């Protein structure tokens, strides 16, 4: 119980001490890193040798840069790397690395507070790099499917903690649409991405 009280007192002291300056500032920039997970979806619209390949669930890491046009509105460039796998293929799991590049708009709901809620949405491009082709048959016809790239769209919500003038912490969750990741019999992917990050504010 004493430990809980002590932790609460420390958090209160931090919040009290940072409230005077921790806010979103017009013209400020943020350079940060993020890490979390991407939850996959079907890679193909048809079965390959009786199995429907899927993009797995795996970790995601990346970099982000933001410029705040005003207290409420900002623009963010975001790169995310997802070392994933193509699962449920006729030949077992296959390494499939995913690269996501996005330009997002960000809206800060309460920019003057230490804890800032925000919404974000944007478009970009998804690049996949598969270790080997997905081989099998479709209705008796041999096929080999390789990697491809396609349009991606994301939209989500998050929370920033403006710890100080120089440091910002964030967590967010977003829906991510990917047009395609393989080059034949492709399927559009509907995925979920959750990340947490830290940024240097200047």
How would you sum up this structure, described in words?
By secondary structure, this protein is mainly β. 8% of the residues lie in helices and 59% in strands. The protein is built from one helix and eleven strands; from the N terminus they run αβββββββββββ. The protein has one helix at 2-18; strands spanning 29-39, 54-55, 58-68, 73-87, 94-108, 115-130, 134-138, 141-145, 149-162, 167-178, 189-201. The strands form two sheets. An eight-stranded antiparallel barrel has the order 1-3-4-5-6-9-10-11. It has a two-stranded antiparallel sheet with strand order 7-8. A hairpin with a 4-residue loop joins β9 and β10. Residues 3-20 have low confidence and may be disordered.
